[in-house]
Design brief:
membrane; 2 domains; 12 strands; Rossmann fold; 567 residues; 19 helices; elongated; 67% helix; 4-stranded antiparallel β-sheet; alpha/beta
């Protein structure tokens, strides 16, 4: 259940339950769904009526040798076949559009919501879960739109067949009206097991996908500490468990599929046997016997569609449960109540927790004895978490969040790189992108790519080295050109020569613009207008780099350690 339910009709999805979400999707295209139902009814009815024409062709034309009647009834069969072909094409076309509409509507909803969640998303749900929702679950929701139309049409067709058989024989009509619900009820217990096992399987699949992503992302570290084999063994074990879960789902599904094919066949045999007995004792004519066989044979199609629709509906509900779980997530930060506009023009940033004041237009470098404290400081300065931090005297948590995001950019080392042409990954084209690449000392990356800036990069640009990805992240942040740029360890994966060039070029490119770099690198600290030592969560020292080397033993020890680690 949603912690903040959205009522249908408000333009937002109804996430109070998976079933309501599917109904909301169907309601967005109710005309198309009803059209599919009507076309399905016509298509199945069109398949049912040929036996009626064949029966008359036999009784009115073939038996009495009336060739005119035989010709007309035969022509009716041909005409019905042509008309039904056109109806089925239209039905499949409308059904395909209904599936695509639901699929891409769900993709749009989840993508927009994930964007709203922003930095809160990784803390609330794993990347593997998001990947699975965006793949298998979205596809299952699209397929579930094939339930309503064909399901309604199939039920309507069954009623038509029952009525037709009832006009021939009340006994046969009663068998259809009673037997069809019994077949659906017979499969009911298995459908419940399918839903339970499918839910467990999809949850474990999401967990395993997340783990595989973590392993790939940290493969170099795992190899460095000798943990690669241990993680690989654990992954194989979990994969084996997932495989067994998949077999269990397949086992139950296979029983449902066998009933889907077998029970209607058994039902057909019973009806045909009754019709044969009635024909033998003279209650039915030969033509009626042929019609009964044709009607009953056509029953296989709507009965299979009903059972198949129920199975697709179950998978859609399982998938919708996972989608609504993401849509029900709420951002950590939102605008509440009255907001206060930020300062006009550049202004100082102040963090009361540490006592740090970032001067407007200055190039400030913060060296922290504890990296976690430095990252927490960056989160407060960029309002990635609510705090007492101020911007030009205005509390950041009172400013409109959109304004904060527009004016202050926090770029972390692990920021996500989206797939696409390199120029799009960096956010644009032209001289400004070239300048950003120059600042990040990333021109060689573009030069080495087969199609330059037009080269397609996969998600996270995994074909590039860690240092290359880091420089692309820096180029993207510089290209954004925010009023305040906060960089967290922007050069931790590059060599000292490249780092020195980046520090010099960044200092020049951001001249007169407020820039905060969180780093213990002496190469950055030497370029700073003001170097800050952060120790025990407070500003312990500030000033010029060379002055601090002389005046602060703690600062000198920290920078000496950084030089040693770089070597």
């Amino acid at each position: 259940m949603s912690s903040n339910p959205v009522r249908p009709g408000s333009g937002e999805p109804d996430t109070r339950s998976p079933f309501r979400f599917l109904l909301w999707l169907a309601a967005r295209q109710r005309g198309r769904i009803l059209g599919v139902a009507a076309l399905t009814s016509l298509a199945i009815t069109g398949l049912i009526f040929p036996p009626f024409f064949v029966a008359h062709a036999v009784d009115d034309g073939l038996v009495p040798r009336d060739w005119t009647a035989l010709t007309w009834w035969s022509a009716g069969v041909v005409a019905l076949g042509l008309a039904n072909a056109a109806i089925i094409v239209a039905q499949q076309r409308a059904l395909t559009f209904a599936k695509i509409d639901a699929t891409y509507r769900t993709v749009a909803l989840t993508t927009r919501h994930i964007a709203r969640l922003g930095a809160a998303l990784p803390r609330k749900v794993s990347s593997g879960e998001v990947a699975n929702v965006g793949g298998a679950d979205v596809a299952a929701i699209g397929e579930s739109m094939g339930v309503a139309g064909p399901g309604i049409g199939s039920v309507a067709a069954l009623i038509v067949v029952g009525v037709l058989l009832f006009t021939i024989s009340p006994v046969l009509g009663a068998v259809v009206f009673v037997g069809t619900p019994l077949i659906v009820l017979a499969v009911g217990p298995l459908l419940g097991r399918v839903q339970r096992r499918e839910t467990g399987y999809r949850e474990r699949q999401g967990e395993l996908t997340a783990r595989s992503g973590d392993i790939v992302a940290g493969l170099r570290v795992l190899r460095g500490v000798g943990g690669e084999k241990r993680f690989a063994a654990a992954y194989r074990t979990d994969s084996a468990h997932l495989l067994r879960d998949g077999y269990r789902v397949g086992a139950v599904t296979s029983w449902v599929k066998s009933f889907e094919a077998g029970l209607p066949g058994l039902f057909l045999a019973v009806v045909v046997w009754l019709a044969a007995r009635l024909t033998a004792d003279g209650t039915l004519t030969v033509g009626q016997m042929v019609a009964v066989y044709g009607y009953t044979a056509m029953l296989m199609l709507p009965m299979n569609w009903i059972l198949g629709s129920v199975l697709m509906g179950i998978r859609g509900i399982v998938a919708a449960r996972r989608v609504t779980a993401i849509l029900d997530l709420r951002p950590d930060l939102t605008d509440t109540g009255e907001t206060v506009p930020g300062p006009v023009g550049e202004a100082d940033l102040h963090d009361p927790d540490t006592g740090l004041t970032v001067e407007a237009g200055a190039f400030t470098v913060v060296a922290a004895t504890d990296p976690a404290e430095a990252r927490a400081l960056a989160d407060r300065l960029g309002r990635h978490t609510d705090s007492d931090a101020t911007f030009g005297g205005v509390r950041l948590d009172l400013m409109p969040l959109a304004e904060v995001r527009q004016r202050i950019l926090v770029a972390e080392d692990g920021a996500y790189l989206f797939g696409g042409p390199l120029r799009h990954v960096l956010g644009g084209d032209g001289e400004d992108v070239t300048a950003a690449l120059h600042t990040a000392v990333a021109e060689d990356i573009v030069a080495a790519l087969p199609e330059g800036a037009d080269t397609e990069l996969g998600n996270q640009a995994r074909t590039l080295s860690g240092g290359q990805r880091q420089r692309l992240r820096l180029a993207r942040a510089v290209h954004a050109d925010p009023e305040v740029l906060v960089l967290v360890e922007p050069t931790s994966a590059v060599d000292s020569h490249t780092e020195a060039a980046i520090a010099a070029r960044l200092r020049t490119a951001r001249s007169g613009r407020t820039t905060v770099v969180v780093s213990t690198s002496p190469l950055f600290l030497d370029r700073a207008d003001r170097a800050i030592l952060l120790a025990d969560g407070k500003v312990a020292a500030s000033g010029g780099h060379h002055d601090l080397l002389t005046e602060s033993p703690a600062y000198r020890a920290l920078t000496d350690r950084s030089i040693g680690e770089a070597r």
